[in-house]
Amino acid sequence: MGETQRVTAAADNQSTQAYFVLGMGVLAVSLAAILIRMAQDETMPSIVIAGGRLLIAALVLTPALLRRPQYVQQIRQLNRRDFVLAMVSGFFLAMHFASWVTSLEYTTVLISVVLVVTTPIWVGLLEVFFLNARLSRAIIIGLVIALVGGLIIGLSGYVNDAVNSNDQIIGAALSLIGALTVSVYLVIGRKLRKQLALTPYVWLVYSCAAAVIAVIILFSGESVVGYSIDGYLWVLALGLIPQLIGHSSLNYALAYLPATYVSMATQLEPLMSALIAYFVFTEIPTEGQIVGGLIIMVGVTLATFAQRDTG
Fold first, then answer.
1. pLDDT at residue 151 tops 80
2. Which entry of 130, 234, 245, 255 is 20 to 30 Å from 21 by CA?
3. Residue ranges of the domains in the chain?
4. Segment 168-206, tens digit of pLDDT
């Protein structure tokens, strides 16, 4: 085999491996809502689940940070403005997890995940208002389509059960808050990643977010002890599988596959989460919720392509 053939074969192997890792990454992040529900079923408060997820991720990343002196040096070299931005990013990430995890107390896995992954639309809008980016036609169309999907979901709620209907509205609102807050985190991250590598950035932001939620837990009076072993194990799995394995896999895939492929693959998360929820919790969304969720995903996909095209 010639040198060119060996290089081509190696590239093909890397590409095949990247697709496999991407699939595993999407599956891992799709388990997040399921693991959260499992912990909630063990009577663990949502805010404790959110804080535990972030704390575990930060602790696991600490040795990786300390093994690379250049990572520590990057954090130390941040000026005051960028350090404050990192703290703000961590605050919004904390609000994302606090609101989204809580949403799963009120609404179905499908609706919660579909709404929280509308992030590309809100990122596009935030960049227009705060980074003077141009609002592309695709983002406008994507937003309109997503709003139509949301309207269909709203009209297909449990109209014969006022309490359940109110819960669905609360859950949907919390999911959207989760999407908006994580969008702020991502917009800030695009700037800070110019000064920080991935590991020191996520360690710093995860640690800050965990500290913010710790303060919320302190003032809310929620206890972090006294729950079942199973509850703590579900939170541990949440921090290790969706947070670290899932997101690490997606970042690995980005090194070998076009960003568009990775973004499109992540749109499978709501469908996979809903499918797992069907088998685990016998959770069956209404036909209108399924149709509305698919329409929202179409809108988000358009927004994803728009962000790719605008760089």
1. no
2. 234
3. 27-36+45-309
4. 889 999 999 999 999 898 888 878 878 888 889 889 999
User: Tokens representing 291?
Assistant: 């149709």
CA distance 43 to 46: 9
How many CA atoms lie within 13 Å of 147's alpha carbon, on the beta-carbon side?
A: 7
Is 76:258 a contact under the CB 8 Å cutoff?
no
In angstroms and rounded to an integer, the radius of gyration of the C-alpha atoms of the chain is: 20
Q: Look-up: residue for tokens 């529900």?
A: 37
Q: What are phi and psi of 135, to 5 degrees?
A: -80, 110
Give CA–CA dist 83/218, Å, rounded: 25
Written as one string, the DSSP assignment of the chain is: --HHHHHHHHHHHHHHHHHHHHHHHHHHHHTHHHHHHHHHHTT--HHHHHHHHHHHHHHHHHHHHHT-HHHHHHHHT--HHHHHHHHHHHHHHHHHHHHHHHHTTTS-HHHHHHHHTTHHHHHHHHHHHHS-----HHHHHHHHHHHHHHHHHHHTS-TT-HHHHHHHHHHHHHHHHHHHHHHHHHHHHHHHTTTS-HHHHHHHHHHHHHHHHHHHHHHHT--SSS--HHHHHHHHHHIIIIIIIIHHHHHHHHTTS-HHHHHHHHTTHHHHHHHHHHHHH-----HHHHHHHHHHHHHHHHHHHHHHHT-
Identify residue 253 by its one-letter amino acid code: A
Please check whether residue 298 is in contact with residue 117, taking contact to mean a CB–CB distance below 8 angstroms: no
- Tokens linked to 85: 């931005």
Q: Read off the tokens for 48.
A: 């404790």
Give the Cα separation of 194 and 192 in Å (integer).
5
